[in-house]
Design a protein that fits this description.
Layout: H1 6-16, H2 23-30, H3 34-52, E1 55-58, E2 60-65, H4 91-103, E3 108-113, H5 121-135, E4 138-142, H6 148-156, E5 161-163, H7 171-177, H8 183-195, E6 199-206, H9 213-226, E7 230-235, H10 252-265, H11 275-280, H12 284-289, E8 295-296, H13 303-306, H14 322-335, E9 339-340, H15 348-355
Helix pairs in contact: 1-3, 2-9, 3-10, 4-5, 5-6, 9-10
Length: 357
């Protein structure tokens, strides 16, 4: 990498040893290309190997309801999309999918839905309780903004993690894209989740309308300030049934740079190679795994419903059988010289603190 600029190399190596950079420097790194980008991603992957090891953690995704009461401008599940057939899995259906996940070797499931208040806090608590007691699974919830008491109930029942993406840390863009939501309400709930002892995940989209490298650098700073246990970074993929359907999508290269910088800024973070990235590039997940990512989230949603959970179009693996998907993912991971983790993949921060006298 003879053509790597000296200034960029210095910035990356500062991050590598835990030093901070200005927002301007982070924006410049996000816009890196060519050998500069290769160097950035290589350093992130080396840090991933050093801190997180060679294992890739699998999280089995169960999309149990595509009902949503929000009207976000970018999401195919928005309530304004009246052409979408809606569904909602029963607690028993969720349990049976999770039981299949256990037989395939998954130790974590992610229960994801739109913001659907018809799934009551008690209903979801019963599902969590059963998954913990009968299957001994690690459980991540991703059901949006709920009340403090609901989050507390699910935590008492054993929910380990909660994923609440902030989507964008730019208040002006957030306000424009979320006409019925409030930025401060989002951040308040992230603070609640931290207070309740969840392993907290958040994240953002790359390439949103109106977003530039400066704005995206603010997202990375926000994630570092939160000190999240998981950071989901994926490209914006326009959905034709939304107001943003005709806008350009996110860029693969900048998304990979954002993944790499997330690793350098948060060395112990669990960082997924997102399905969205794999949907816009045939090797998107592989490239993310080589840029610092260490998590893959295969879709276990039953096939009759999988196409209906369409946040964005042309998602990969819609017709894959869960067992085939599991073999395919393992093949991808081993082809990169990595191995599938044999543990639930709790945050190393949590593991470290538990080990302290």
């Amino acid at each position: 990498m003879k053509n790597v600029s000296i200034s960029l190399k210095k910035m990356v190596l500062r991050l590598r040893i835990g030093k901070s950079l200005s927002r301007e420097d982070l924006a410049a790194l996000l816009e890196s290309g060519g050998e500069n980008a290769d160097f950035l991603r290589c350093q992130a992957d080396a840090l991933r190997q050093e801190v997180m090891g060679n294992r890739v953690h699998l999280r089995g995704l169960i999309e149990f309801s595509n009902h949503c009461e929000r009207n976000c401008l970018y999401c195919g599940l928005r309530r304004g999309n009246t052409s979408l057939e809606r569904y909602r899995l029963s607690g028993e259906e969720v349990f049976q999918v999770a039981r299949t996940a256990v037989t395939l070797g998954y130790q974590t499931v992610v229960l994801q839905s739109g913001e659907d208040s018809q799934v009551s806090a008690d209903d979801l608590a019963r599902i969590v309780r059963r998954l913990k007691r009968e299957l001994d699974l690690a459980v991540t919830l991703c059901v949006g903004e709920r009340d403090y008491e609901e989050y507390a109930l699910w935590r008492r029942e054993g929910a380990d993690r909660y994923l609440l993406k902030h989507e964008t840390a730019d208040p002006a863009i957030y306000r424009r894209l979320h006409p019925d939501m409030i930025w401060n309400r989002r951040t308040q709930r992230l603070a609640w989740l931290r207070k309740l002892g969840y392993q907290v995940g958040s994240g953002c989209m790359v390439g949103l309308p109106g977003q530039d490298a400066w704005s995206l650098a603010g997202d990375l700073i926000f994630l570092r300030t939160l000190d999240v246990e998981m950071a989901g970074i994926g490209p914006f993929v326009p959905h034709p049934a939304t107001p943003l359907g005709n806008t350009p999508g996110g860029d693969v290269e900048m998304t990979l740079n954002a993944v790499a910088l997330s690793r350098l800024l948060l060395p112990q973070v669990h960082l997924p190679a997102t399905t969205a990235l794999g949907s816009i590039h045939p090797r998107g997940r592989q490239m993310a795994l080589q840029a610092g990512a260490n998590v893959v989230m295969p879709n276990l949603t039953p096939k009759p419903y999988r196409r209906l959970y369409e946040i964005y179009p042309d998602k990969i693996c819609l017709d894959d059988d869960p067992s085939h998907c599991r073999q395919c993912i393992q093949g991808i991971i081993t082809s990169l010289g990595r191995r599938v983790a044999d543990d639930p993949g709790h945050s190393p921060k949590l593991v470290f603190h538990k080990a302290m006298p």
